[in-house]
Specification:
Blueprint lengths: L4 E5 L4 H12 L3 E6 L2 H10 L4 E5 L7 H13 L4 E4 L14 H29 L2 E5 L12 H20 L4 E6 L6 H9 L6 H12 L7 H12 L9 E3 L11
Helix pairs in contact: 1-8, 3-4, 4-5
Organism: Epichloe bromicola
Protein name: Short-chain dehydrogenase
Keywords: NADP, Oxidoreductase
């Protein structure tokens, strides 16, 4: 498979780091984004000529254009984009302020939208892929997650609309499942008061039983897909372990 040029956001830890690690193992060239520069600089030193990065907040209006320009300037093209960054707020619907909704949407929706828009002209040229990291909360209600779940539902819809309009781009939304990351730790520590107790207990139980996914499980599927997308799946919202993605699974 020819080596691709791919932007990965939220690349410094968790799922993003797993996606990054697999793509690097396959000799793809990456432009990485995260708020912390140190882990990204370590990756660039470890993989000379294969990694460029920008450390910053994805809600910064200049980040999408800078990342796209960096990919083309450094590596000559852009084949893929993984929109992996995001945050979770756990607060009951009635008590979540409009400002809190707006702040979460700025991260989870509008910065992803801006990044996709900036990348479209280049990814159109290569007939590449835009992959939106979604969540089961986009389809199922969790008490306290109205802001988060609705933001991920918005991503699903944006992905589907993009696929319909841009026939040369494969746009998919992928749910990674319950992954052993910092976000799961946040749910366990902060969800007790805001979440439905039965739902909350399932997260505690999954952790204690060792049932959380390793980041590499969905991460490797996402990495394989963005590097070699199936155009027939453009516009779909899929779980990482769905039958449609069988050829990308271990």
């Amino acid at each position: 498979m020819p080596h691709k040029v791919i932007i990965v956001t939220g690349a410094s830890k968790g799922l993003g780091a797993a996606i990054t690690k697999f793509l690097l193992s396959q000799s793809h060239k990456l432009v990485l984004a995260a708020r912390s520069a140190e882990p990204l600089e370590s990756l660039r030193r470890a993989h000379p000529g294969q990694v460029e990065y920008l450390a910053g907040d994805m809600t910064d209006a200049e980040m999408p254009g800078k990342l796209t320009h960096l990919a083309v300037q450094a590596f000559g093209q852009l084949d893929g984009l993984v929109l992996n960054h995001g945050l979770l707020v756990s607060e009951k619907f009635e008590k979540t302020s409009i400002d809190a909704f707006k702040a979460l949407y700025d991260v989870n929706v509008f910065s992803c939208l801006a990044m996709a828009q900036a990348a479209i002209p280049e990814i159109r040229k290569t007939e590449g892929c835009i992959l939106w990291v979604s969540s089961g909360a986009a389809r199922r209600a969790y008490q306290g997650w109205s802001a988060y779940g609705s933001s991920k539902a918005a991503l699903n819809s944006l992905s589907t609309h993009l696929a319909f309009e841009e026939k040369d781009i494969t746009s998919v939304a992928v749910e990674p499942g319950r992954v052993d990351t910092d976000m799961q730790g946040q749910i366990r520590s902060s969800g007790r008061d805001s979440m439905d107790r039965a739902q909350y207990d399932t997260f505690i139980d999954a952790f204690e039983r060792g049932q959380l996914l390793k980041p590499e499980q969905p991460g490797n599927v996402i990495a394989r897909f963005v590097a070699s997308p199936n155009k027939n799946l453009s516009g779909h919202n899929l779980s990482w372990n769905s039958p449609e993605l069988a050829s990308y699974q271990e």
